[in-house]
Design goal:
CATH architecture of the largest domain: 3-Layer(aba) Sandwich
Strand content: 5-15%
Number of domains: 3
Enzyme class: lyase
Distance between the termini: 89 Å
Keywords: Lyase, Thiamine pyrophosphate
Protein name: Probable phosphoketolase
Helix content: 25-40%
EC number: 4.1.2.-
Cofactor: thiamine diphosphate
Length: about 800
């Protein structure tokens, strides 16, 4: 191709990179439109075109451009690199490039790199039984789901953490750049340690438009945009234009300059220079939206407008003019120069493509299970609290868990493949023991009053749940382990991210070449029942309701009732694969119910009868008291002690649920109980009074098909909250011990008349509490000082 003033690439290098780019663009268009005639060996006819045209062309030329140039520098410099595609539905581009470099056919051998494989590649795209229009698990080399915008940078930085030899190129779409998560994602460079971490090279792709509107950053004048990006801590390099030769040359020069700067930063830091946080380079790439596509359709401009976003020619099958335009568009790439008679890429086209695992589609970091090592989780029995008798002592569960996490941090200090993420709450959530093994990552300057900050810290805190989640996902998907600890109410902020990760795991499980990765572990603490000091805004247990909607094979939910059970849950979850484990556990002093061996057995079963707490030994229970969660367990146990005192002849069974998914039928969840096991625990006819950590209707949903569901009565959080005492919270939501005893009386037929005095006494206790707490500002002594070991206080 002609050019006047070559500055960086040789003519051969320019010709090779342009040939690859044209081929990738041709393949991207073919995927959107064609089911047959992939090499245009005959005139294009309507039957060669898909009946439903789905896909996104507008961003594809820019993505193909970056991929082609990454190939060049990876091969020239022998780089270990992956790339992340942030502009949403850029699937046609990445699929095209993976097919060209052979990595797609490696994992999808039914789609070979020849004419027939090209036809299948085209046909499967956005087609029933095929692949989606965005980058997805089926796309080799990907760790980033393109269906939702905003997380390219957080995934990129997560992948770079503790990967000192890795380069992560993150293409940021200009529409994506308007999202809140992406706006905070730029701050990942403040947590990147140039000694122990790899590098992230952001490429902000400004093609001007979103679906139907201009993009904000694309319309900023150059000075304002430059100030913004430098304010984020970057040194931007600018590339732009619509002349392919000039853009190729400028992008090649910018890439080489950025990579030289990255190498310089890393050499200096790894040589002992600790002069401060570096300013990392980035690229701003301005190219026309839908570049090389139709300039005009039906008299309206398309290229370099929002009309190029999806399918520029929408009526190809029934409009001969559109069909002719499509054929001219495809032939403009000169496919006869790109593919041989058998449809294989010509030799010169692949001259800059890396080999083997250096290919972007084959890098092991983008299939993290290939690199994953077992996490050295210590025997949690070493951390167990002594339980001389049930309910006689109290401990802070997350504080003891912090000691386990500290030792996991210690055990992975050399290999650096475990991190703890959270929004400025590690100490608040009583996990401070980890700071004895690793400080909090901090690359900025420090003051004498700062505590626990460290440039190489593996505890990562930022007051952005989006970043914490995105970093962890990037970390896990590249073969490492981690934990996300958060206040329960605010984990909702990342609900949609959890959606996408669950879907990623679900699809990955169906792909034999995708190796299992470490599970995404959530610790939800500072939970609904003990946010009495923060009040209503901090009281919401609904994340569990959402997460159980996901693929049953992917989801686990644990509600440990005490410290030793939390330790047993940690042992069960920390080194699992391809799961999302949600653990809700309190940080406040909680009664110890089970010794460690009983706790381990309880967690293994998921649901247990606590014989020592009930009064049904040797006889059929007249009522079942069940609990799931630490505060619900305490209230159920208090209700059981009241029943012992006031109705000693009543046969009461106490059941505790720690693994919530056990409540589901075995046919619906791999952890579910069989009907026979469920009936053995909860009976088929006795009333069941169930105190649950979250919204009560979830328990009904999980158990609606069980034989005894009609006798199940659930108490839980019902959106009544305020700044008040701990016990007043459960009273407000009708989950207190007195209300539970009243429920037993109301729902056990034999008690309707003979226990009326007991019921009245319970109602009086609730009234007394209401008056007492409003006068004294604390709970009644008989509540405050209650324990199972000393029920009278």
């Amino acid at each position: 191709m002609a050019r006047t003033a070559p500055r960086h690439l040789t003519d051969d290098e320019l010709a090779t990179v342009d040939r690859y780019w044209r081929a990738a663009n041709y393949l991207a268009v073919g995927q959107i439109y064609l089911t047959g005639n992939p090499l245009l060996t005959e005139p294009l006819r309507p039957e060669h075109v898909k009946p439903r045209l789905l896909g996104h062309w507008g961003t594809s030329p820019g993505l193909n451009l970056v991929y082609a140039h990454l190939n060049r520098v990876i091969r020239a410099r022998d780089l270990d690199a992956i790339h992340i595609t942030g502009p949403g539905h850029g699937g046609p581009a990445t699929l095209a490039c993976c097919w060209l470099d052979g990595s797609y056919s490696d994992v999808h051998p039914d789609i070979p790199r020849d004419g027939e494989g090209m036809r299948r590649l085209f046909r499967q795209f956005s087609f029933p039984g095929g692949v989606p229009s965005h980058v997805a698990p089926q796309t080799p080399g990907s760790i980033h789901e393109g269906g939702e915008l905003g997380y390219s940078l957080s995934h990129a930085y997560g992948a770079a953490f503790d990967n000192p030899g890795l380069l992560v190129a993150a293409i940021v779409g200009d529409g994506e750049a308007e999202t809140g998560p992406l706006a905070t994602g730029w701050h990942g460079n403040k947590f990147l340690d140039p000694v122990h971490d790899g590098a992230v090279l952001p490429v902000l792709h400004l093609n001007g438009y979103k679906i139907a509107n201009p993009a904000v950053l694309a319309r900023l004048d150059d000075g304002e945009l430059d100030h913004l990006l430098r304010g984020y801590g970057h040194e931007p390099r600018y590339v732009g234009g619509d002349d392919p030769a000039a853009v190729h040359d400028a992008l090649a020069a910018a890439l080489d300059d950025c990579l030289d700067r990255i190498a310089q930063i890393q050499r200096a830091a790894r040589g002992g220079d600790s002069s401060g946080r570096p300013r990392w380079p980035m690229i701003v790439l301005r190219t026309p939206k839908g570049w090389t596509g139709p300039a005009e359709v039906d008299g309206k401009p398309v290229e370099n407008t929002w009309r190029a976003h999806q399918v520029p020619l929408s009526r190809v099958r029934d409009n001969p003019e559109h069909l002719a335009q499509l054929e001219a568009w495809l032939r403009s790439y000169r496919p006869e120069e790109l593919f041989d008679e058998r449809g294989r890429p010509v030799a010169g086209l692949l001259g800059q493509v890396p080999h083997g695992d250096r290919r972007l589609g084959s890098n092991p970091h983008a299939n993290g299970g290939r690199l994953l090592r077992a996490l050295p989780v210590p025997d949690v029995r070493r951390y167990a609290v002594e339980v001389p008798e049930p309910g006689g002592t109290l401990h802070e569960p997350t504080k003891i868990l912090g000691e386990v996490l500290r030792d996991v941090m210690d055990a992975t200090a050399d290999r650096r493949d475990f991190r703890l993420f959270g929004p400025d709450e590690t100490a608040s959530n009583r996990l401070s023991a980890v700071f004895r093994a690793s400080g909090k990552n901090w690359q900025e300057h420090r003051l004498a009053t700062d505590e626990d900050l460290s440039r190489d810290g593996r505890v990562v805190e930022m007051l952005s749940e989006h970043n914490c989640q995105g970093w962890l996902e990037g970390y896990l998907l590249t073969g490492r382990h981690g934990l996300f600890a958060s206040y329960e109410a605010f984990i909702h902020i990342v609900t949609s991210m959890a959606n996408q990760h669950a879907k990623w795991l679900q699809v990955s499980r169906e792909l034999p070449w995708r190796m299992p990765v470490s599970s995404l572990n959530y610790l939800l603490t500072s939970h609904v029942w003990r946010q009495d000091h923060n009040g209503f805004s901090h009281q919401d247990p609904g994340f569990i309701d959402h997460i159980v909607n996901k693929d049953p094979a992917t989801i686990r939910v644990y509600l440990p009732p005490d410290t030793n059970c939390l330790l047993a849950v940690a042992a069960e979850t920390l080194d699992t694969r391809d799961l999302i484990n949600v653990v809700a556990a309190g940080k406040q002093p909680t009664f110890d119910w089970l010794g460690i061996e009983d706790a381990v057995n309880h967690v293994e079963r998921g649901v247990s009868v606590w014989d020592w707490a009930g009064t049904d030994t040797g006889r059929e229970p007249q009522v079942v008291l069940a609990a799931a969660g630490d505060v619900p367990t305490m209230e159920i146990m208090a209700a059981a002690s009241l029943l012992r005192a006031h109705l000693p002849d009543l046969a009461v069974r106490v059941v505790n649920v720690v693994d919530l998914m056990r409540l589901m039928p075995r046919e619906s969840h791999p952890r579910g109980l069989s009907d026979a096991s469920f009936d053995a625990l909860f009976t088929t006819s006795a009333p069941v009074i169930f105190a649950y950590h979250g919204y009560p209707w979830l328990i009904h949903r999980l158990t609606y098909s069980r034989h005894n569901h009609g006798n199940l009565h659930v108490r839980g959080y019902k959106e009544r909250g305020t700044t008040t005492t701990p016990f007043d919270m459960v009273v407000l939501n009708d989950m207190d011990r007195y209300r539970l005893v009243m429920d037993v009386i109301d729902r056990t037929p034999s008690l309707a008349s003979r226990a009326i005095a007991v019921r009245q006494a319970m109602e009086e206790k609730r009234n007394k509490h209401r008056a007492y707490v409003r006068e004294h500002g604390e709970d009644m002594p008989e509540v405050r000082d209650w324990s199972w070991a000393n029920p009278l206080g």
